[in-house]
Design goal:
heterodimer; A: 0% strand; B: globular
Chain lengths: 142, 139
């Protein structure tokens, strides 16, 4: 566990929790990113514009943060084909299952939604199994 | 407009959280999922911090009758519904997540890295969402 960073992880996680709490407090909305991405392109209904604002804030912050505190980008050692396949699966699966890490694993679990707890256990389990198979059985790079 | 400003501020906090916790680095996420390898438990602390903070604050928020800028809380109603869609969707998402280590929030927070991969992944993510839209309509 040489890269273990519990303090920054806990602080970052708390900010994510604070963000989700404030979004519920002010807007009465769940901070589920996959749902926001899917709904952000609905320009016709001005009621839906908050999603694009939330996502813009998220992206802008990450860009500005990296300007002032540059960090080592990820290695991206896996192929572009795998990157595309992964993206399609994540997009398809999160729409089908109505949520991702933020909507189910954070917001849903904090409300003790049975649906979200089941979804989280399944996608975590499958992801762990996928990493085990690709890294240790097949041996795809890192 | 006030609703959009509050959403923007929440997005800023969310992006800050993802960046500080380094969840926008798929290497870090894969190292958490790799429990049989050189395990990095950091993601569990991210989840812990988020859940403790949100659950505590929500306790007070839900004592209100309505949010500040809306007439009602928009909450899912079918919290106990475990159907084929939920299970299959979670399996497909988990498989995709384990291949690269990006989830929808994390990849957007990786846009500042100056790498092409987060953009390619996001385009594929959008395509996957549209694909599900068609698949769902066709049924």
């Amino acid at each position: 566990m040489q890269n273990f960073t519990p303090y920054s992880a806990f602080l970052g996680g708390s900010l994510i929790g604070l963000s989700a709490a404030l979004l519920m407090y002010f807007n009465g909305r769940i901070a589920g990113i996959s749902g926001m991405i899917a709904g952000a392109f609905d320009f016709k209904n001005s009621e839906n514009r908050w999603r694009a604002f939330f996502l813009s804030g998220l992206i802008a912050t990450a860009i500005i943060f990296n300007v002032f505190a540059p960090h080592e980008p990820a290695s991206y050692s896996r192929s572009t084909l795998l990157l595309i396949i992964s993206g399609i699966l994540v997009g398809f699966g999160t729409r089908m299952g109505n949520g991702c890490t933020s909507g189910h694993a954070v917001c849903g679990m904090a409300r003790l939604s049975v649906r979200s707890i089941v979804a989280t256990l399944i996608f975590m389990g499958v992801a762990i199994l996928t990493v085990f198979i690709t890294r240790h059985l097949i041996g795809i790079s890192s | 407009m006030t609703k959009n400003i509050s959403a923007l501020l929440c997005g800023i906090l969310f992006g800050l959280g993802l960046t500080i916790s380094q969840m926008n680095n798929p290497d870090k996420v894969l190292a958490f999922l790799d429990i049989f390898g050189d395990w990095d438990a950091s993601l569990a602390f991210v989840m812990g911090g988020a859940l403790i903070t949100l659950a505590t604050l929500q306790h007070f928020i839900f004592k209100r009758e309505r949010p500040i800028f809306e007439t009602q809380f928009h909450l899912p109603t079918k919290n106990n519904l475990i159907d084929k869609r939920l299970i299959l969707g979670a399996i497909i998402f988990g498989f995709g997540w384990g291949l690269i280590g990006f989830c929808p929030g994390a990849v957007l927070a990786a846009f500042g890295d100056g790498k092409i991969e987060p953009f390619i992944f996001t385009l594929a993510l959008g395509a996957g969402m549209m694909l599900f839209g068609w698949f769902d309509k066709a049924k």
